[in-house]
Write a structure and sequence with these properties.
Layout: E1 7-13, E2 25-32, E3 38-45, E4 51-57, H1 64-72, E5 79-85, H2 92-98, E6 102-105, H3 113-123, E7 128-133, E8 136-138, H4 143-148, E9 156-165, H5 171-180, E10 198-202, H6 203-208, H7 219-229, E11 233-244, H8 250-267, H9 275-295, H10 299-321, H11 329-335
Parallel strand pairs: 4-5, 4-7, 5-6, 9-11
Antiparallel strand pairs: 1-2, 2-3, 7-10, 8-11, 9-10
Helix pairs in contact: 8-10, 9-10
């Protein structure tokens, strides 16, 4: 960040190179507060436009190649790739190494989400750490650029981006992604909500407060909660969009929401989620999803998955919490409440998407 007592700084973006792969450069123009004519111009490469990306993986050979291919097509090309592998028995590690990734191993018996992230971040050499699931891939070539740009504000501790479902994702999961990740960016979010499937943090802050290795999930929420308590900001960036692939069974959905609820109750002991909450939220979300599926013309195709997905989600939540309401109305709405969504609400960008094979 450039500072001065008598000067104002104006940033204007310079054109990309023909290859489109150079770090973003900005033209920096200095104006004297008492004399409007320009007195000096120079060009700087913003240091945030290089990063380490930490990818957690276990048997992800089916999807990780698409993420790594998407990284090659980013406008930010100075990227250190670190794979944290928890005992893959397929070709995950070989695929990552073929793309130049540094591989860090964690025994499956020692795995927690927080511990694997701590290993990856500790191995990173850059100040800005992007965190991505191995089964996501970027939609646009400026994904990293958009995700890192908020860090020009020194008070930003964490930025996270939009997520959308894969073409074969369950309908209810599509609804959840639209509920949790809107089309409008928020540079100073009121809550600590975030998601480490598509996020970036400052390593210098992580060194002050590593991820909690004892939580069963939501290590990202615990970290962002700490950051906000220290006076830092959380930014949501809608332009930093990825596709998140989940092919979960009913048991997988139940277990995911159960462990996240267990972690949430650890962080917020006063929370409650009783049987009435389970019935009310299951029924209202099922009917909301069925209604929107009918409007989208996919009701028959999606009927069964909507019922079992929402039941597994809130049954797992109830078992994990035992009795939890989500602390604040904002967080409760973020995690659970169905919201109105029309298909035409989805905004399109004027950036050409990455085309994958």
């Amino acid at each position: 960040m450039i500072r001065g007592t008598d000067d104002r700084v104006c940033f204007s973006r310079l054109p990309r190179t023909e290859a489109g792969l150079q770090p973003v450069r900005y033209s920096v123009e200095y104006y004297n507060t008492e004399q409007l004519p320009k007195i000096q111009t120079s060009t700087y490469v913003i240091s945030i436009m290089n990063c380490s990306i930490v990818i957690r993986a276990y048997n992800e050979e089916k999807y990780i190649g698409r993420l790594l291919e998407g990284l090659k097509q980013q406008t930010v090309n100075d990227v250190e790739i670190i794979l944290v592998d928890s005992g893959s028995t397929d070709s995950t590690v070989a695929i990552a190494e073929s793309h130049g990734a540094k591989v860090v191993h964690i025994p499956s018996a020692e795995f927690t989400f927080g511990r694997s992230l701590n290993l990856g971040v500790r191995s990173a050499s850059r100040e800005f750490i992007v965190i991505a699931s191995a089964h996501v891939y970027p939609v646009y070539p400026d994904w990293l650029e958009a995700l890192l740009k908020p860090f020009q504000d020194e008070k930003i501790a964490l930025a996270y981006g939009k997520q959308r479902g894969y073409k074969n994702s369950k309908y209810s999961e599509h609804q959840i992604f639209h509920q949790w990740y809107p089309d409008t960016s928020i540079l100073d979010q009121a809550t600590a909500f975030c998601n480490n499937a598509n996020a970036a943090i400052r390593k210098s802050l992580w060194e002050q407060h590593p991820y909690d290795e004892t939580l069963t999930g939501l290590e990202d929420l615990e970290w962002s909660k700490w950051a906000k308590e220290q006076g830092y900001k959380i930014a949501y960036i809608a332009e930093a969009e990825i596709v998140h692939i989940h092919n979960e069974t009913p048991k997988g959905v139940y277990n995911r929401y159960r462990r996240e609820a267990m972690a949430l109750r650890r962080m917020y002991p006063e929370a409650h989620f009783n049987f009435y909450d389970f019935i009310r939220l299951t029924v209202t979300n099922i009917f909301s999803d069925l209604w929107h599926a009918a409007l989208d013309g996919v009701l028959i195709k999606s009927f069964a998955s909507i019922v079992w997905f929402r039941f597994a989600q809130f049954h797992g939540t109830r078992m994990g919490h035992r009795e939890t309401s989500l602390v604040t109305p904002q967080l409760r709405e973020t995690f659970y409440y169905a919201r109105e969504r029309k298909k035409q609400d989805e905004q399109k960008r004027d950036v050409e998407p990455i085309r994958y094979d």
